[in-house]
Write a structure and sequence with these properties.
heterodimer, A: 615 residues, 7-stranded mixed beta sheet, 6-stranded mixed beta sheet, 20 helices, 23 strands, 19% strand, globular, B: 351 residues, Rossmann fold, 8-stranded mixed beta sheet, 3-stranded antiparallel beta sheet, 13 strands, oxidoreductase (chain B), thiamine pyrophosphate binding (chain B), TPP_enzyme_TPP-bd (chain B)
């Protein structure tokens, strides 16, 4: 018996699988998460993987959470330790009272274990070697065998997993039956040789509801399909590649003319990021909805074109799946670190619209909206996801679409409007909102053509280096950005139960951890109003929120508190009133981290000054 | 780019083409390039070619990068949309524009600095993708706007205006275009309008990636003794493989040259290129032969001009991508959006 009482918990624990990249464990581990979901219990899985194809360590963490907390929790209740190289670190990470599951084929010295955890050994290699002769089969089925053993230890319904295997190998009977066999091999061994179940258990529930389980990148790609994107140009880069790959898959399914079989889309894998954004800008200039997907290094390469999009006022949509930078940084680790780089991308005075979805459902909605915004505002729109949302499955509300919705193509002057005698000046602010009319190439034989250029020009697109003309144009661009404030998704505010002078601002993938952290903070006696920012430029309610609170914490996943910098810069606020709470080691921010950082600061604020106490 | 627009009035008796347009309808603003610049001659040839083809000016999209050559789209087809993008990145912008609307004519104008240095990659990839475009490089071997630095097409051993000798090897864009699979490859000389006009016309009619390298001497920085891109040097070393005429379908096809000296190439749209052979053994359908021919003549210090290679059955990027005939920029939600019923099914598959 361990010297610490084993953790006992139903539908609320964290299991982490430690594997070797390329060992084929991913599908078994994901099946484990999906099986729990099919029990009606919410899960929040996360891939933690190296920037490598084979051989390096990889982890897959499944948070089982009947309460529905979808952020990372921190701490591991059960470690499935399948990678000898990371054994020591993996074992050390287990919570006291937790469980260690390992392949016990070869004896391990007692020093490799801990006294305060329960050790569960299953001779996985011995079982596979006695059953299979093919080395690859031995490797792959070992994963299914440990899944079977876990199902017994956690009291999971094997029929649920069998059903999942059936769905995965539909039409491939041989694979189906052999996987089911491997599942029961592990399950039966555990039932016969181990005390089942352990303290951690999965009990059927009904907490999933109608929610769906989808990766953010796939949802964003689907948003692009629904939003009417017809041109996608991209260059492979982790963690954004799956956006374009998913867009391709969705288009193949939903975008072919039923009569001719021809494609109502064009996808080009560019030679680099510069070409990709160039293609997007060329297509958008010509009236198509176009986008690219990239990550931080790609944004760096695209900045010259982004400046052109801003100054020449050409729509573009960039989906930036952020990863840990700078430079190559940690390509497979998450961060929210491109806020400043994107907000002010390119040389000169520029400002760009950023959208911050919190989950795949918003990634879908914001992706579709990005194309309306790009055409309405005639500028670049950044959809700011990150690896944590983009490459992990998330439970989220079902995706919704209003069939009456038409695309907002913005201010486009047609041949008929030109014939009516409407004055066309490409950069004329006819409505006072800073947004001019544009024409598509080929519109009219004699009217409405103009020259697009990155150099300064007057309201009628005529080249000009007059200072006053340039300044007039730059001021109109500011007006346009102000117009954008009311077009982008507004911040969402949630107030504490009791009035408080403290607030917290957060955004994007921090959202689920923040939701959970609020509960933890309340348990410590701290009340905070919340504001989830969903876009830049900031709506006026951000300034109001700042004015209403003495201190506002800004929680984000980068070193330099970039959103805080942007708020200070754009709102002219005293930085002292904005307290940075930053997390930037490449792992997703956790509720525990947020609650401790804010809680400790709040406790400090409550300390009575010594001078006051003795007077 | 200029402050001064050309006056619109013109002589009422000016000759008109089939659409009723005069030459003036194909002109743009007044050029601000140096007097005598070869680029202005190319501009004149583009105007002439478009006039002869009776192209509707507004159905042309003219796209360029940055540099002297990239300024020229402002000087022709004033009723067309133009796009002066960023240095070397014209090909990607043109590719995107072409994907959005396959019905327009795409004219990409670039320079040797633009295409052979910073934009070398984009040049190469737009060619290998088969974008339906006419890609013209106005090649003077020098950076004019920044006053005289060698470009990547400057020949090894040639001298700059300041007397510096170029020690780097030159990039021959024609040779590269052939290697990359361009389906229409030509070289010409800005001072040879007779050759250049029909080449541009044939390139516009070609469906696929058409590339024309036009030697265009820089009057200010590369027209001196020691330069291999000067007017005198090119005139002395020019070896034309053929002369050609373009016969569009609406005209009666009449080839009145002596038998055995003319080869007619029919293009995808029915237009015909009549090649008057100068080099009797030159076959413009032989890509490998063209590469060898070029290399042999280059070794002798000769600049081969004319239509070097054409594949009359070429396919373009839209064919490779199997896109619908309707321009993508005209598709709306009713044909693009799968709708809520499909989304419900997608949702159901994600549980």
């Amino acid at each position: 018996m361990p010297d610490k009482k084993p953790i006992s918990s139903v539908n609320d624990f964290v299991v982490r699988f430690a594997n070797v990249n390329g060992s084929g464990s991913a599908s078994a581990n994901e099946m484990f998460a999906r099986a729990i979901l099919r029990h009606g219990v919410p899960v929040s899985p996360r891939n933690i993987f190296p920037s490598n194809i084979q051989g390096l360590p990889t982890w897959y963490e499944v948070r089982v959470t009947e309460a529905g907390h979808l952020g990372a929790r921190g701490g591991i209740d059960m470690m499935v330790a399948m990678n000898p190289q990371t054994w020591d670190k993996d074992v050390a990470g287990i919570e006291p009272g937790g469980y260690l599951f390992y392949d016990s084929t070869k004896p391990m010295p007692s020093t490799k274990f801990r006294d305060d955890i329960t050790v569960i050994g299953v001779p996985l290699t011995a079982i596979t070697n006695s059953t299979y002769t093919d080395p690859r089969q031995r490797q792959l089925f070992k994963n299914i065998i440990y899944l079977g053993a876990l199902s017994a230890l956690l009291e999971m319904d094997p029929k649920v997993i069998e059903q999942l295997i059936g769905e995965q190998y539909r039409g491939k009977e041989k694979l189906l039956s052999s996987n089911v066999h491997a599942l029961h091999l592990g399950r039966d061994w555990a039932l016969q040789n181990l005390k089942c179940p352990i303290g951690l258990r999965v009990k059927k529930s009904d907490k999933v509801g109608d929610r769906i389980f989808i990766e953010g990148n796939s949802a964003a790609a689907l948003g692009a399909v629904y939003g009417g994107a017809t041109v996608c140009a991209w260059y492979p880069i982790t963690p954004s590649s799956s956006v374009a790959e998913a867009f391709t898959a969705h288009c193949k399914k939903y975008r072919h003319d039923p009569e001719t079989g021809k494609a109502k889309y064009a996808i080009v894998q560019g030679e680099d990021e510069l070409a990709s954004i160039g293609i997007v800008i060329g297509a958008s200039w010509n009236g198509a909805r176009a986008f690219t997907a990239t990550s931080g290094p790609g944004i760096s390469l695209m900045t010259e074109f982004i400046g052109l999009s801003y100054f020449a006022e050409i729509p573009a949509v960039i989906m930036n799946i952020q990863r840990a930078g700078p430079s190559t940084g940690m390509p497979t680790r998450t961060q929210q670190c491109d806020i400043i780089a994107c907000a002010y991308a390119s040389h000169g005075d520029t400002k760009h619209v950023l959208l911050f979805p919190e989950d795949p459902a918003e990634a879908f909605e914001f992706a579709a909206a990005a194309f309306d915004l790009a055409e309405r505002l005639q500028t670049t729109i950044f959809l700011m996801l990150d690896l944590d949302i983009g490459m992990n499955h998330r439970l989220c509300r079902p995706l919704k679409w209003d069939d009456s919705r038409q695309y907002d193509r913005g201010k486009v002057m047609t041949a008929e409007m030109l014939e009516e005698g409407r004055d066309f000046g490409r950069y004329l602010d006819v409505d006072g909102d800073g947004i001019p009319y544009r024409t598509y190439p080929g519109t009219h034989p004699t009217k409405g053509s103009y020259f697009t250029r990155g150099t300064s020009r007057d309201r009628y697109a005529r080249y000009s280096e007059e200072g006053s003309v340039y300044a007039d144009n730059m001021q109109r661009l500011v007006r346009k950005f102000e117009t954008a404030q009311d077009l982008v998704p507004r911040p969402l505010q949630a107030n504490a139960e009791r009035p408080t002078k403290y607030g917290v601002i957060y955004f994007g993938s921090t959202s689920p951890a923040m939701d959970e952290a609020i509960g933890l903070l309340e348990a410590r006696g701290h009340q905070l109003d919340r504001l989830r920012i969903r876009a830049f430029p900031f709506h006026s309610s951000v300034a109001s929120f700042l004015a209403e609170h003495d201190f506002v914490y800004v929680v984000e996943q980068n070193r330099d508190s970039q959103l805080r910098q942007l708020i200070v810069n754009e709102n002219g606020i005293d930085p002292v009133r904005l307290v940075p709470i930053v997390h930037y080691d490449g792992t997703p921010i956790t509720a525990r981290f947020i609650a401790k950082a804010i809680g400790d600061h709040q406790d400090h604020l409550k300390v009575t000054p010594l001078r006051k106490a003795v007077s | 780019m200029t402050y001064i627009a050309k006056p619109k009035f013109h002589h009422p008796g000016l000759k008109k083409n089939e659409l009723g347009y005069t030459h003036r309808d194909y002109e743009g603003k007044i050029s601000t390039l140096c007097a005598g610049c070869g680029h202005d001659s190319i501009t004149a040839s583009i105007i002439e070619a478009c006039y002869e083809l009776s192209i509707e000016p507004h159905r042309v999209a003219k796209i360029s990068g940055i540099g002297c050559s990239s300024k020229t789209p402002d000087y022709f087809l004033g009723n067309s949309h133009g796009f002066n993008s960023v240095h070397g990145r014209m090909p990607s912008v043109l590719t995107g524009a072409n994907l959005a609307n396959r019905d327009l004519i795409y004219l990409g104008v670039s320079g040797d600095g633009d295409s052979a240095s910073i934009g070398f990659g984009q040049f190469a990839h737009s060619i290998r993708r088969g974008v339906n475009m006419t890609y013209i490089v106005e090649n003077n071997g020098v950076y004019g706007l920044t006053k005289g630095q060698f470009s990547a097409t400057a020949d090894r051993g040639s001298k700059s205006k300041k007397g510096v000798t170029n020690t780097d090897n030159a990039i021959d864009l024609v040779a590269i275009a052939l290697q990359l699979g361009a389906t229409f490859v030509a070289r010409s000389f800005s001072g040879d309008k007779t050759q250049l006009v029909p080449l541009i016309a044939a390139a516009i009619r070609h469906k696929g990636a058409s590339f024309i390298d036009v030697i265009s001497p820089c009057i200010a920085f590369n027209n001196h003794a020691g330069s291999t891109k000067s007017f005198d040097y090119v005139r002395e070393h020019n070896d034309a493989v053929n002369r050609l005429d373009v016969l569009v379908g609406r005209d009666p096809i009449a080839v009145d040259y002596a038998p055995g000296t003319v080869q007619v190439v029919e293009q995808h749209d029915g237009s015909k290129i009549a090649l008057r052979k100068i080099d009797a053994d030159y076959d413009p359908h032989d890509r490998l032969g063209a590469q060898t021919f070029l290399a042999k003549h280059a070794a002798k210090g000769q600049i081969v001009t004319g239509l070097l290679y054409v594949d009359p059955d070429a396919e373009d990027l839209h064919a490779h991508l199997n896109t619908v005939e309707t321009p993508l920029n005209t598709l709306e939600a009713d044909t693009l959006c799968p709708g809520s019923a499909v989304l419900d099914k997608i949702n159901a598959s994600l549980r």
